[in-house]
Amino acid sequence: MKSFLSVDKMTLRTSFIKASAIGLAVACTSLFAKATDTPNQYQQDEWSPEYGSSTWMYENSAGLFETGPLDDYRAAKRLFLNRRFLDAVYAFGKIQTKYPSFRLADEAAFYMAKSFENLRMHKAAKSVYEDAIKRYPQSDQLAKYHFQLMNIDYKEGKYKEGMDKYQFIAKNFGKSDAKIDADYIAGQIKFEQGLYQESIDLLSSILPGNANYFYARYTMGFAYSRMNMADEAENSFRAITEQPVSNKSERDIQNAAKVKLGHIFFSVEKPDFVAAAQMYVQVQKDSPVFDEAMLGIAWCFLKARKLDDAMKVAKWIINNFPESFIASEAYFVIGFCYYIKEDWRNAIEPLSEAEKRTEKPMVSVASRDSARQAYDAMQSQFDSVQVLALDLARQLPTPRVESKRKALRPTFDKVHQAVEDYASFMQRSIQSVHFEYNRKRVLDDAGFYLACVRSGSACAPEEIGPPEIVF
Question: Interior CA angle at 167 toward 164 and 170, to 5°?
Fold first, then answer.
């Protein structure tokens, strides 16, 4: 394909101008050099009432006038919903120990384990789920215990173990709500393994009204794009935008889908910049992808030859998102606009900044290795804290036990914060890896036009082939 988007007599040397960039536009490497989202970034708030295929809040199933254990259960649930997960662990543990025959003891076990899971304490969480499977073999929570164990395997990258558990769930709990949740996680696993059609087959059965629907369609959009099925990718993302949202996670993924649709309209062989801009302007300001949408608007202004407007938007991005992965491309937009105007002097600074910001990866291999070594070094302490917290949760809150819990808290908080910091670092590290293709593209483009402006003349259009699509 030899389709070029030109500005006057000069060719815009950006990788997304090709028809084949349709895959790049909706892949992990974002069209506009952000690439901070993957299909699995957008997941349900696991502490919210909306979490799961059906409502997992069953207070009303207990007797209306039941007191004692029900009051304790409701108090523990409030701690969970307020994300006070360690306190919730102790509160749900008390219910199981003090009221073993309470009708909601099995649900208390679920939320106790889920609290550990939300603290990233998978060892303790698995112990609680596995114990609950043995303790409550007739519980209607049984399928959910098995699903959560599968989900932990997925989170830990243990895909074979996760799929083994999926087969068990499909065989033994095929009609349960947990089976639909398991379909979703199995679809995510297949996607991560590069088995895109198998992923789609699993996810396509999840229908509107199910809590997994938005997330399933988002992954399907990515899977279709990686198979170069542009129409199907567009339909998957569009389906998300046509549904009402019920929580922040769904709103975030709906905004992300709008950005992906904008990228598609921008990237096709006959681009529709108006349609692209209409998608970008719908993205809400508090969205995690608002900066990416704004950069899309800047490019649309540039393509409409409204260069001052394009620069205004790009400067806004830089001022409001200085640490964003896409700030480097915002600098490039400014420099390129000056280049189009043949304002060589003013083009040098933003192009130089774009080049400077993309000279090295945002997160180096050395820093990743160092962070991993530090995390591995504290793993034994992390495990021991989990074990101790679990042991204390299974004891009644006597003064002696409360004293031990209080003594554990500083160490617990310190270790937990270190784990959260490492998780945040690794998320940025993953984003850096996804950004790598675009980093090199912006670096190449900025260097090319910087050389042009320093020579004081416009460069001749350069015939370049389609970019290598990196997914």
Answer: 150
